[in-house]
What we know:
Blueprint lengths: L16 E7 L14 H12 L6 E3 L2 E8 L2 E8 L7 H11 L6 E7 L7 E4 L8 H10 L6 E5 L8 H5 L8 H21 L1 H8 L4 H6 L1
Parallel strand pairs: 1-4, 1-5, 5-7
Antiparallel strand pairs: 2-3, 3-4, 6-7
Amino acid sequence: MILEVLTMTGKFPRELTRHLIVGLGNPGPKYADNRHNIGFQCVDYIAERWNAAWRGRRFQALLAETEIDGHRVVLAKPQTFMNDSGQAVAPLSRWFKIPAERILVIYDDLDLPLARLRLRPGGSSGGHRGVQSIIEALGTQNFPRLRVGIGRPAYGDPIDYVLNDFDREQEPIVRQVYPYVEEIVRCYLNQGIHEAMNQYNGRDLIAAAEE
């Protein structure tokens, strides 16, 4: 009977809003500490902070699920290679019935200074092939993304740069990034993309913390 699903207050149980948070990277230990894998590194940190264990694999992605601040959250690390990330994200979106506007993608950006963070509600890929794959698979550019600056090399091939690990001087700076990413993601969940952008875009968070 329908009355059996009513709570003691006489209201139907509240359905929590579900979000998909995707970190981009390349699978396997060979790539784990690469600059290109900072998306994976960020969602690993978030999973640890939110006690969300990586428990299963579905649609070519490793998944962890949790509830945080009244939201149901699916964390995902596509196990395709970076350039085919959309092959994992689009099926996850359909399976969990999560629309594009509630899919937050975290990934590296060569054109942002190291450790600079920038939120956007949508837009083009900016030349990032993992993001372009997601745009093509979802059929829309309208999904939020959090870009994590890795800096552009002063010389040499940018492809070699992104597929190598952070150097000794960069490592301690990058470790400071993860807590800010988690903070921004929680702000995004609780206050929305535009408020999170107002609070965090344009700020040099690492420099401010060191003052």
